Amino acid sequence: MKVLFIINPNSGAGSSAATIARIQEAAALKNISTCILYTTGTRDDEMIRKEIDLYKPDRVVAGGGDGTIQLVARNLIGTNLPIVLLPLGSANGLATSLDIPKDDEALADYIFSDLQAMPLDLLRINDIHICVHLADIGINGMMVKEYEEGGHSGMLGYARHVVHAVKETPLMKYTIKTEKETLEQEGYMLAFANANMYGTGIQISEGSVHDGMFEIRNIPKISWIDFIKAGLTKFNIFIDKHMFTDVISCKQAEVFIDRKVDFQIDGEYIGEVNYLKIEMLPSAITILIP
């Protein structure tokens, strides 16, 4: 078996070197061929496609957080190559949803095991962006933006921007059009979820990553008491499910926003938007899970 690793060396707050070393030891013992490609943030898509063509792996391991998984996943669309998740990020939302092990020793065994193949849905946003776990506008989008601009890593770095984002994000008004209905809502954050769980383990919905549907959830109001009780995670501070309104399940949606607001996908800042088109890409790639 040949396994290609795509590793983000900057994921999470700590170094992934020990985890990678343990995995390489396990590969040597099992006589498995491995190749490691580290992302740099420059021409990563091109380098991944090139390495796949040259190395011809049997499976591709995405080592990092949800942003790294998204990077690998979008380059596997249209191929028969399965993806394997190696959770090295701070919250690891998609890996948590799929009950992927996070302990170093368990990871080394899991990566090379006979895993179960399962289809993985993806979201396409505004015709150009891919989402594997969660996208949102509003408070969390502003925090992701300030987190990236600040250059701080880990949860403490993310926490630096919490208070400012909550104070500065305006109340948004939006029209949500799905294949079933049109809704007028207002709030401080609107989330679009492919998976059913945050990295904290809090349930988003009863959906799954292979049901051909995604979920929309709105935060219509937020008080400081609720906010303090909620806590925070790397990619979404809102871990109290009671802060959200009812779930909207759909296959496609358009969102018209009354102003330009901060927008993030899988923990990576995209920019300001006042319109979103979200489409489900059912069974877009194959994922291997325990």
From TrEMBL:
SUPFAM superfamilies: NAD kinase/diacylglycerol kinase-like. GO terms for molecular function: ATP binding; kinase activity. Residues 1-129 form the DAGKc domain. Keywords: ATP-binding, Kinase, Nucleotide-binding, Transferase. The keyword Lipid metabolism does not apply. InterPro entries: ATP-NAD_kinase_N, Diacylglycerol_kinase_cat_dom, Lipid_Phosphate_FormReg, NAD/diacylglycerol_kinase_sf, YegS/DAGK_C. PROSITE patterns: DAGK. GO terms for cellular component: plasma membrane. This is DAGKc domain-containing protein.
